[in-house]
Amino acid sequence: RRRGATRVCACQYASHDPALGDPEAELSEAARYGEVLKEEKGDLFRRYEAMFTLRNLGVPEALASVLDSDHSSVVLRHELAFVLGQMESDIAICALARSLGKAAEHP
Q1: d(CA 76, CA 78)
Q2: Is the pLDDT assigned to residue 9 strictly greater than 70?
């Protein structure tokens, strides 16, 4: 991140993402993207865009919250786990451990 910049690009991740996220997003918009991601009945692609935007902005708390609470899509939770793993933050590690501890999720 450039000194004083509020935008973060996806270039710090080597993955080929199914959605790019919003390249114009700013950290001040993280709550809005978090709300889009939480919408269990929302469009899955829009939720993916929000997820990758939050990753690119460096907001693991919002991603971890949805991983903990989402019941709409196993595929989305898989992607959330992958993205959190990419972030390598303590918040991500705790969220991934909680997810692995859900016996019903991993029969």
Answers
A1: 5
A2: no
Q: Note the pLDDT tens digit of each residue in 37-77.
A: 999 999 999 999 999 999 999 999 999 999 999 999 989 99
50: which 2 tokens?
């929000």
User: Rg (Cα) of the chain, in Å, rounded?
Assistant: 13
Check: CB of residue 70 under 8 Å from CB of residue 99: no
Identity at 12, one-letter amino acid code: Q
Query: Rounded CA gap, 78 and 30, in Å?
Result: 21
| Spatial CA neighbour of 64 closest among 53, 54, 49, 56 | 54
pTM (2 d.p.)? 0.85
Q: Which residue has the tokens 């690119």?
A: 56
Half-sphere exposure of 49 (CA within 13 A, CB side): 11
Residue range 14-34: average pLDDT?
A: 90
Residue 80 and residue 55 in contact, taking contact as beta carbons nearer than 8 Å: no
Residue 49 contacts residue 19 (beta carbons within 8 Å) = yes
